[in-house]
Protein: Rrf2 family transcriptional regulator
Organism: Fictibacillus enclensis
Amino acid sequence: MNSDFTLAIHSLTFLALQRDRMSTSDAISESAGVHPVRIRKVLSLLKKHGFIKSKEGTGGGFIFTLDLSEVNLWDIYRITSEGALQPKCPDSNKNCIVGANMKRVLFTIFLGAEEHLGEFLKNYTIKEVIDLVNQEQNSSCD
Amino acid sequence: MNSDFTLAIHSLTFLALQRDRMSTSDAISESAGVHPVRIRKVLSLLKKHGFIKSKEGTGGGFIFTLDLSEVNLWDIYRITSEGALQPKCPDSNKNCIVGANMKRVLFTIFLGAEEHLGEFLKNYTIKEVIDLVNQEQNSSCD
DNA sequence: ATATAATGTAATATTAAATATTACAGTTTA
DNA sequence: TAAACTGTAATATTTAATATTACATTATAT
């Protein structure tokens, strides 16, 4: 799995804490520690699905307009990483009953696993993530 | 995630269908379509945990001695891939509340996600996998 | 009008991870 | 004692993830 999923979570959380103004891909990339072009790619997916809005030009950037509880991690997972749990099986031997069928069997099992994972991820909205971030912040002793 | 998990499932299923004799890493690798050395590496983990036995020398190989229902996919996952769900977060900006805490928040969430996944994987023992392989075999029209 | 600051996206380069290969020591059998 | 295996480390290759460059497009401010 690539880290588009976690980058999307990071970006949305960042935007959710700045809902009064637009944030640039540069600012987000600095927070997340990755290249701004990657941020733009991930955010372009989120925009396509209506989670954020963007504006070009001076003073432009990205902004999160929905309610914090309206977006959960399963939504984000599906947009950025659906199918990522599926193992990449090499082509196996068709003359062996195991080789001939294992790929499809595993596909079915992992499809179920992903759905099951979804039930867990639905429990976390951006609001919950922000709460957890704040908790971590408060419990750190600097 | 690498494919050690699925290779382990493939190997155990293969062995489970040959419980009267030993199978060589060459035979398994031919069924799975990967290099025999990889099979030996994965099986060496499974051996360490008591799922299979091995024997060196002529006529040697690997053999699965437990009951087919004694081993489930969660057992195998833990041995081969524990922690694989965890995203590899780049070091993010400590001066930003999101950057400073997101890594730990995600770690916590993904730890829960893995446990949750475990509950699903426990439903599949090698017996169930064999049943699915047979079903696939029977439903294919050659 | 025009310079500037932003997004959008494709193309390419680089880095990191997964996998394959080689090599060889140790074991068992014939 | 030769042959057929496992066990495992070291290295090479391939593939996937990420970064970088480049540039078109859009909006703002002067």
Q: What stands out?
A: Chain B touches chain A through 49 residues (CB under 8 Å). Helices of chain B lie at 4-16, 25-32, 36-48, 73-81, 97-121, 126-139. Residues 24 and 61 of chain B are 4 Å apart (CA to CA).
